[in-house]
Amino acid sequence: MVETVGTSVEDDARIAEGGNGVGITAFVTACLGLGPVAIVLGIIGLARWRSGAASRRSWPLAGLVLGIVGTLLVAAGWLLHQGSQTSDGAILAHAKVDVITVGNAVVERFAADPELTGVDVDITADGYVVDGAVVARTSEADVALTYEGSTAYDWCVTIAAGPDGGQTAAFTATGGLVAECPAG
User: What does the angle CA 166 – CA 137 – CA 175 come to, to the nearest 5 degrees?
Assistant: First the structure.
């Protein structure tokens, strides 16, 4: 004798009708890096599974977990990035980029007219000015700029950056990027 297990048509229709659309969408949005969206859709998908409207909990659960992990990783990366912008190393790196850029502008000016007896170098709120030409600024820290010299072969630009001016970089006519301007 064979026993059969019967199910009603109403139960099969409910499962077939429910599907896992919200759970699969939660998983896909988590894979696309949309963590907060995946978290919300994962919670909705799990609620649908608990109420019996969805047949599986694996998709919404995976979307929820990946959404939380992705959101936490993005937040940690953002915090690390914010902290690195104000470190001494970052301030010095920006000062070096700025002094090289200003130094190259001075070189261009002397290359255009080697007989010049000096170049006007100034600092503004947004950048630097070399004989009227605007030079972009990358440093977000407070900076002080000094220019010494009078010929195309004898000059030095120094940028001191940071709250106390402790991060310095210099650029000379003959040496390029140096730690400080030569004495004399």
Answer: 65
Q: How does pLDDT run across 122-179, given as a tens digit for each residue?
A: 888 888 999 888 888 887 777 888 888 878 888 889 988 887 777 788 998 888 888 8
Residue 100's nearest CA partner among 155, 42, 158 is: 158
Name, in order, each residue with C-beta under 8 angstroms of 23's C-beta and a sequence gap of 6 or more: 41, 42, 45, 46, 48, 49, 54, 56, 57, 58, 59, 60, 61, 63
In this predicted model, what pLDDT tens digit does every residue of 63-78 receive, in sequence order?
999 999 999 999 888 8
Mean pLDDT of 1-12: 55
- What type of residue is 143? V
Cα–Cα distances in angstroms (integers) from residue 143 to residues 42, 121, 122, 134, in the given order: 49, 14, 12, 16
Strand order in the sheet with 121-123: 121-123, 127-130, 133-136
Phi, psi of 72 (to 5 degrees): -65, -40
- Structural domain spans, the chain: 9-84, 88-178
Mean predicted lDDT score pLDDT of the chain:
83
CB proximity list for 135: less than 8 A, separation 6 or greater: 101, 102, 105, 127, 128, 129
